[in-house]
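2 proteins. here.
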Amino acid sequence: MTGLTANQLARVDGLLDELLDLPAESRTSVLDRKCTDDPEDIPPGTRIGAWRILRRIGRDGVGVVYEAERDPAAFVSNARERVR
């Protein structure tokens, strides 16, 4: 499985640093302005958290739309139960 490319990670890191320095109420508008260009295509098989990209579906008014599936191997949950 692959992750984000070095360019994608650098872009995310830079945006996050910039956004965290801003007041919370300004972050959305700055992020919208910074992310209006077409993103690099995310190749099938790329994992983002517990999700694996299957294919690019298209583009809508918000951005690029991908079909993804949750990777059960990447999702681990612990629980505690009390039995009386």
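next one coming up
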Amino acid sequence: MEPKKKKGEIIEEIMNRQLDSFAKKYGRDPGPEDPIFFDLEDQIPITYSQENLRERLIEVAMKSGIDPARVLLKLKIPTTEGKA
């Protein structure tokens, strides 16, 4: 069993995944005006809709070995349609 990750480690993992995803998608590091969470389907970096952001957070949390419900609740994002 892996030791429990600290909040700072979890946030760092999520941010690093997002920065890597941005660089792979757009061929550059994000600038100060670029969104941290963005829609991978778009040709330019635009912010996700709330539903797309929710889905992406779940995906990233699962890849990081984190309970997605905890992340969503912490960020006050509904865990299911319309429920916080």
